[in-house]
User: What shape does this take?
Amino acid sequence: MSALRITWRKSLNFVMLTLTGVAAFAVVSVLFLILGYLIWNGGASLSWKFFTQLPKPVGETGGGMANAIVGSLKLLFLAAVMGLPVGLLAGVYLAEFGGKTFSFIVRYTTDLLNGVPSIVIGIFAYSLAVLPVKHFSALAGGVALGIMVIPITVRSTEEFLRAVPGNMREAAMALGASRWKTIATVVLPAASGGILTGMLLALARVAGETAPLLFTAFGNRFWSQGWGQPIASLPVMIYTYAVAPYDDWHRQAWAAGLVLLGLVLLSNLGARFILARSKVV
Amino acid sequence: MSAAATTLAHEVPPQAGPRAFLHRLRQGDQIAHLLTLTFAAVILLLTSMLVYELWINSHLSRTQFGWAFFWTKVWDPNFDNFGAAPFIYGTLVTSAVALLLAVPLGLASAIFLSELAPRKVSDSISFLIDLLAAVPSVIYGLLGIFIVVPLMRTTLGPLLINTVGNVPYIGVLFRGPNYGVGFLTAGIVLAIMVVPFIISVSREVLLTVPREQREAAMALGATRWESTWQVVVPWARTGIMGSVFLALARALGETMAVTMVIGNAAAIKASLLAPGDTIASTIANQFTEATGDLYLSSLIELGLVLFLITFILNGLARILIVATERGGGRPA
Amino acid sequence: MKKALLVVWLMTLSMAVAAPRATAQGGAVKLNAAGATFPTPIYTKWFDVYHTAHPNIEINYQSIGSGGGIRQLQSGTVDFGASDGPMSDEQLAQSKFKILHFPTVLGAVVPTYNIAGITGELNFTQKALAGIYLGTITKWNDPEIAKANPGVNLPAADIVVVHRSDGSGTSYIWTDFLSKVSDDWKTKVGKANTSVNWPVGLGGKGNEGVTGLVKQTPNAIGYIELIYAVQNSIPYGKVQNAAGKFVKADLASVTAAAAADAKNIPDDFRVSITNAPGPTVYPISSFTWLLIPAQIQDAAKRDAIKDFLKWMVTDGQKFNEGLTYAQLPKEVIARETKAISLIQ
Assistant: This one.
């Protein structure tokens, strides 16, 4: 009886542990097969033209996505300019000045904003930046992405500022530095690696956002000058090209997917690299 | 709020004028405080404006349909009759499918990575999985269209119809016709998207479980599996729940990947192989082309519903964290 | 090190920002337009050719669907719209400014399908099409389909119905036809509309999306503009017309539809030519329109739009047939030229 039970427990142990291994192997291999497929297909479709030419009229083969690549970078620039300062300073507030109740509200709202689905942010940016001026624009797309950048930056900034040891602050204060001087010259530099990482991750996340751009940045078959024009972006192009029937467009969608993935993963790796280097603090 | 009020009260200078201003500037602290406070307030302002815009712009639809909006099954722009039921159903079903697939697989993988795999292997795999969590959703949509949809259509769909489809009761979930796109396909793509989140967070939480816990269980004669399943996992359960909430929130609000593979049909069907629509995919498809004010207003009310769902989820996640902290377990 | 990385990032970004500035031309007129996907191939061709001839004028056309064209024009987010379904009287009454319709090309909506082993043309009765889209005909070997296709080995497979997920003029033309030929359709689904509460099927975004879905899905049927079927070399069927004949969509049969109804075209050009009388007529034909505000404040934009319209009804028409769209009837061009001068 007891021997039987032990055998049972041992075999259960073996079976379940094997199953976890199988699950891990299955998940990891599926994920990487998928990525490999993207890299394989995208790599085969990439060409110099893809980076230098404008899209061709519908149904004609050839052309590239030069305008969408530049468009995505422009939108990221706008998102960075609008979102990062707000996120940074609000993060400083939470870590350094915040009281109890107000900070709780800000933190809660930030988490809430972080969780708002991107399509809803799109509606908000549409009513905020498209309807009043009556046209789609790069600026409106930047507003949508900028809003999404804020919550991630706030929380990472706060986290890394809090991680700065208290004795560094105390030392600076003891030398007679005022509070803000301590923050600006001691605390912020000490946490800068982490904060920068957070910022890069925030930008990397919004770089691939499609939904909020559908009705803010819209799309453009040409170059978009200035900030007031509709603008093309890689994610939106991938979406339009992927659902279309043309084989050539599918190839370009794969190529665009690879470029976008490269952009996002490189920023991620860059961010991790910065963090690893600055761990010494 | 009271804290904000008192800080602001301190800000009021005893006397106005350029001298007082200069004095304050030299001090700097209060300015820095005020400046950062302003930016923190911007976040509150933005979020309240978001709610306000959704609320105001959905006015027409709210007054026209009232609460019936939630259970009306028709979405008919031709007769100006709108109900959110098919989309709420689609959102819940695809998220449920995603979690049913992703949680067991993700948790098992996390257990393997934290308990069994050598630390070096575990770390490098986790690093790659973290990178996967950053892959944009439109890319998952692209892969969904060209890998998952054909697979569903040619292999998985027929297989399910011919096997599980004949089982009583649950068989209705897997009846044809098989389109390739549909609830199940969307659920699978969502599962692929959220599984990295679950693995990454759960593994981290499992690793924080003290070594002694495992050793104590093993010393009492438990097998490796028993110590893991009966001691380590319960210890980490709130953190694991946290990862599930995170995954759920992402699945509910996901737009592009779902829009590309769900089939876009406003219908409630028992079969998981049938095409459907989610709240987010409907907004993505129809927002720029809604003719008529009531149509647009109904779409914005859909946005409001989606916002409320995330609001509630966020609240639940908070309560979970507070409960953990009170309960003395490890905070996630 | 970390600073260097940030600097590299910012520099890349600012280069991206500066690059297009360098190519900017003085006095460029940029027009934004959006709407129908049905004429997108010819429109993007026109706008490209026109841009080459007039380098200072760029017309950015986004094919978001006819419903979108109307909506965005009404809310003023584009300079002009495009639609395959004329705006309804209510829609015109609702807009804050006067909107003119300008027919651009004639096109046909064709039933396209993907059935293994069938590459030829199937014949579709009016009843069959209505039944398929109402969900009352669900198998490919249904008698209603089989009797019109003697000798064709139709499979006993389920029909996968594909329709549009966005507000669409192609849907307008399709449902305009179905509501004319089927009373069931008219009572259950309603009159012609860009957005439809579909009884069955799955949705694809744009003509592109529907074509993509049909191409990928065995046993699917969809309705698309002729050019999308031709460009993707997928089969499309003949449709039974008002005279009871099965007619294939081509330039001649579409032109015949316009000719049959030419005398009925009202002054505002809003006319439906589906199910037109005559034995050679393809029954699911339609004009497609540009929607232009009657008054345009910006003089440069106004001149550009008027000039483009003049070019479109003359030189532009030459490109139609290469993309399987029929040219506008002479009579319509003459009347349209007059209407162009009314834009202020």
User: Anything to note?
Assistant: Chain C has two domains: 31-105+285-342, 108-260. Confidence is low (pLDDT under 50) at residues 17-26 of chain C. Chain C touches chain A through 48 residues (CB under 8 Å). Chain C is about 40% helix and 20% strand.
